[in-house]
Prior knowledge:
Elements: H1 2-18, E1 49-54, E2 56-63, E3 68-75, H2 79-93, E4 99-106, E5 109-117, E6 120-128, H3 131-145, E7 152-158, E8 162-167
Antiparallel strand pairs: 1-8, 2-3, 2-4, 5-6, 5-7
Amino acid sequence: MRRIVFTVSLAMSFSVLVMPVVASAQTACPGGATAGSRLCGPDGAPQNFQVVRYDAHGAVAYSTSSDLFYYTTGANSGGMPSVRADAMTQCLQDGNQDCNLLGTWTNSCATFATVLVDGAKQPLFTTGSNSRKSRRTAKAECERLAPGEKCRVRKTECIFFRTDLVPY
């Protein structure tokens, strides 16, 4: 009797080692069913994804009469033409008639500043790979335009691309 039990248990353990085991999760369950219950079905095949990059764009407009900067940013929002139009629209909707587009930037930082040049405020727009570089460039430009005058940094705005996983 002992010999038969030992032989059967040896045969069973050997078959477990030889037979491939396929594991599949059962998480496709109807509402209220717990994963793994007999009501659940096997998961479907995994989806394939690709990485999609969305560049970020920014534009800034300035009104001399109000001494205000109007900027807009967006990622995949119609691109550069869209942010240019949005910045100008914001400026004009505030009732300004002297709106000028100062510049645009993509996936970087921008600094808006003003400095007095011959008694008149001069708006400045500079860019850099980070906020420190952008500000440093603005201050250097202020010093170049009006040596010794105070550079008033009004805003630094950084925008960078974003990525998404999109099924295909």
